[in-house]
Amino acid sequence: MSTSNRDPEALLRRLEWTVIRRLDGMLHGDYRTLFRGFGLDLADLREYQFHDDVRRIDWNVTARMQTPYVREYHEDREVSAWFLVDLSGSVAFGSAGRTKRDVATEFVAVIARLLSRHGNAVGAMCYGDHVDAVIPARTGRRHLLHIVGHLQGRPPDPAAGATDLSVLLRAGVQTIKRRSIVFVVSDFFSSEGWTAPLARLALRHEVVAIRVHDPLEAALPDLGLVVVQDAETGEQVTVDTHDRRFRERFAAAAARREARLLESFARAGVDTLELSTADALADAVMRFTELRKQRSRLSGGASAMPAHLAPGAAR
Known about the structure:
The protein is of the alpha/beta class. It has helices at residues 8-27, 59-65, 100-116, 141-153, 165-175, 195-204, 244-268, 281-298; strands at residues 40-47, 69-75, 81-86, 122-127, 131-138, 181-186, 206-213, 225-229, 236-240, 271-276. The protein has a six-stranded mixed β-sheet, with helices on both faces. A two-stranded antiparallel ribbon has the order 1-2. Strand 6, helix 6 and strand 7 form a beta-alpha-beta unit. The two termini are 24 Å apart.
């Protein structure tokens, strides 16, 4: 059953029992490993002193000033998190008993609950064919249920046309003023032009691209003649999936799109988490956590600065 047919309170209680309790056990309550910039804001720059940690040297400033400078941070124990959620027609698709929208809603509910129960504010911006909801960052369970209810209750518009994620990302740049953790939740089936605003968003905030996908989007099984409809334009075509060459062309086109997508994430300099309709949410989050911890160790522990995690590796 789709999450869009469930009560927000019932969905949240189920996720608390099936996903959040499991994450609690595996992470031992330390959710800072999920968010590299959690609670850290740049306070000042000053000249390097003998006792300073060399990992805090700002090499760009050092090169300009011709003398070593280090970053100083102050800890903000409360952090704001924003979810920029794509609710366009294509996310209504799913072949494994759950739609991409179900997966996106569950992810937002889990991560928002983990953050909000420690007093952190969470907000959301929702996109169909335009940004039709901006829910300010606040705390509390009732506020979280309001966000989840909105994600469940908004049906896709079959006449909305092609998705343009740049609209959502530009709205995020303009709306989110305080440094925050920003999750961009989408299948990234969009017209071109979203990479630049994603990069601008990442200059100010810690941004994680949450890519939801379905196995059938990468490879088609042999099902004979099938009528396929574009979820955003309504266009229908009949395809012969029994044709091996057609299936191979489909897989090759999907692979090319995958390569372009990963290149776009790399150019924007954001971390990515892959969420499949066929995977368990807790397993995906844990794989992502382990990769971020490895990345932090490889980068020498410079945890406050966003760094790119090889996209697609968190599948």
